[in-house]
Structures are given as structure tokens and as C-alpha cells.
Amino acid sequence: MPHRERYLFVCENRREESNPKGSCAQKGSEEVLKRLKEALVKRGAHKRVRACGAGCLDLCEIGAAILQEPDHVAYGKVSLDDVDELADCVVDGRVCERLVVFPEKAP
Which of 6, 9, 27, 79 could form a disulfide with 67 if both were Cys (CB 3.0 to 4.6 A apart)? Predict the structure, then answer.
């Protein structure tokens, strides 16, 4: 498997509809992942940046949630409207500050 510069782990966890916490899948993460992959291909960055589905990231209350590595940041409430901006930031090697919910902690 080729190593990439950055990884976007998109939570696709789905809980029962009655769960008060909700889930990222219920908040649109599956379509966000699909569009994010398309956006990376469109920018010619799919060999440098990998967007992939993940199981529960334990962030569903702020879903749709995405972890960006190696930057160690979590994005929350990501919607389809955010995909192009997020893709542009990641391709440029930046963090999309507007979406950050848990920034990297200082050592």
C-alpha cells in the first residue's frame, strides 16, 4: 500500500435511529466521503491524499466527523457544502481551521 502525505478518516458509523447521540452516517458522512474522494481525484491529489471510511470515531455528537492525519485534528459538522474547501486545504497541506473541533494538542 502506498504511503500518502495525508489521510482523511471519515466516520461512517450508523447507530439505531433512536440513539440520542445520533451517528455520522445519519448526518450525511457517507455522501461526504463519496464527494471527498471525487474532489481529490478532480484535483489530481488522490495519490497524495487518501479519504477513507472509518468505523466509530466516538465523535458522532459532532458528526459528520473526520480525522485528518498526520495533523491530528478532528473536523465536525462537515457537510457536502464543506467538501471543496476541505479538499483544497488538504491538497495544499493545510488544516481547514473553520471545521476544526479538536485541534492538535501541544506537547
Answer: 9
